[in-house]
């Protein structure tokens, strides 16, 4: 159960990081 929750958090944080990096790329262009 705990592993499942932490796994979801990890996936969420990774997708958030990806979105943020895309935003930074658009801003720098």
Supply the key terms.
single chain; 29 residues; mainly alpha; 1 helix; rod-shaped
What distance lies between the first and last C-alpha atoms, to the nearest angstrom?
43 Å
Taking all residues together, what is the mean pLDDT?
Answer: 81
Q: What's the main sheet like?
A: none
| Structural class assignment | mainly alpha
Determine the fraction of residues in helical runs and give it as a percent range: over 70%
Number of helices: 1
Written overview of the protein:
The chain is mainly alpha-helical and 29 residues long. Helix content is 93%, strand content 0%. The protein is built from one helix and no strands. It has one helix at residues 2-28. The termini are far apart. The model has no long low-confidence stretch (mean pLDDT 81).
Short description:
Helices cover 93% and strands 0% of the residues. The chain is mostly helical and 29 residues long.
């Amino acid at each position: 159960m705990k592993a499942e929750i932490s796994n979801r958090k990890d996936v969420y944080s990774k997708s958030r990081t990806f979105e943020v990096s895309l935003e930074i790329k658009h801003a720098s262009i």
